[in-house]
Amino acid sequence: MSRPNDPIDALIALMARLPGLGPRSARRAVLHLIRKRAALLRPLAEAMMAVADSARECLNCGNVGTEDICEICRSEARGNGLICVVEDVSDLWAMERANVFTGRYHVLGGTLSALDGVGPDQLRIPQLLTRLEAENVTEVILALNATVDGQTTAHYIADRLEGRVALSSLAQGVPIGGELDYLDDGTITAALNARKRF
Amino acid sequence: MSRPNDPIDALIALMARLPGLGPRSARRAVLHLIRKRAALLRPLAEAMMAVADSARECLNCGNVGTEDICEICRSEARGNGLICVVEDVSDLWAMERANVFTGRYHVLGGTLSALDGVGPDQLRIPQLLTRLEAENVTEVILALNATVDGQTTAHYIADRLEGRVALSSLAQGVPIGGELDYLDDGTITAALNARKRF
């Protein structure tokens, strides 16, 4: 099935480049799409074109949206002095699904990494410093992933912001529904050290 | 993240309807696409539109392609009197990847199923009978899946074709690279019964 210029083969090759799809699942997805040409394939193509035409990164926080300044940064209600710093847009979406944070975000776009040559200037850290005054920020919440790279980045940002604004980070401990037997030593240690009165 | 009319949310909802992608992996795929707007998202949208405009089922064999009669049915060289009957286009693609079969195909589009109300007329079986004379078929190879439904369908087709054309089916036995310890009883029984001189 390697006919040059065949539109079906071309579509399979492009679909296989999506995260989570390999060649086999790309073929399966394309066959499914061909069977549902009117109900799924055409709407999907149109939705992709619409996103390709309109999607952009928010100039203020790095969130993706369809305007130069995203909905969250435009909302007056969310300008309450709290900024939650996340690594990636997917983390921002996860926070929004939890539907508990009422402030604004700042998406770093990755973590510091000497190996990969990612320094503070690649991570929108200068923009975060600018926002402190511009948006009268009172507290910066570091919601970076609990990985080595995430925590290294959190410490770097904490150093840069120290004394200028209140700093906090997400609590570490036993996840809701978690069983001790399945937790790693680090999590149990963190949960024990951060224990609270019952 | 349930804003009505947001193109990104709309795209995520459509992507989540692909086989192999759920809501989480659809979000991941869409973020990836937004990051690679020029390199992947736009080409993918265009490839989908091209397939939506051109893909159709071959009127002769049921394969998918971009013409009313598919490449394989158009090829004179493949009209060698052999027809390989498969359940689905994905099976046809698997046979073509093996690159060993030189005849034409007939895609049933499923298996007989009393429960789901799938009878012979839904399965392109009448068209198969028509092709026997029209294409001077000498042998029909039943390459249906080794499942109960597949084998039931194979027996039904064998009954219908008996005496009109030579019939064969794929051999059953130990797969290449297979280890006996990991094989089911049915496969071992089939392999033993069909043993051949060394």
Residues in helices of chain A, as a percent range = 40-55%
**Overall morphology of chain A:** globular
N→C terminal distance of chain A: 64 Å
Our count of domains of chain A comes out at 2
Poorly predicted regions of chain A are: none
Mean pLDDT over the residues of chain A: 92
The quaternary state of the protein chains shown equals: homodimer
> Largest sheet of chain A, order of strands side by side?
4-3-5-6
CATH architecture of the largest domain in chain A: 3-Layer(aba) Sandwich
Instruction: Enumerate how many helices of chain A there are, as a single number.
Output: 8
Order of helices and strands of chain A: HHHEEHEHEHEHEH
- Percent of residues of chain A in beta strands? 5-15%
Q: Indicate the CATH class of the largest domain in chain A.
A: Alpha Beta
CATH topology of the largest domain in chain A: Dna Topoisomerase Vi A Subunit, Chain: A, domain 2
Gyration radius of chain A, in Å: 21 Å
How would you classify the helix and strand content of chain A by structural class? alpha/beta
Total count of strands of chain A = 6
Largest interface: A-B, 49 and 49 residues
- Main β-sheet of chain A: number of strands, strand sense, barrel status? 4 strands, parallel
Family (chains A, B): Belongs to the RecR family.
GO biological process, one term (chains A, B): DNA recombination
InterPro entries (chains A, B): DNA_Rcmb_RecR, Rcmb_RecR, Rcmb_RecR_Znf, TOPRIM_dom, TOPRIM_RecR
Keywords (chains A, B): DNA damage, DNA recombination, DNA repair, Metal-binding, Zinc, Zinc-finger
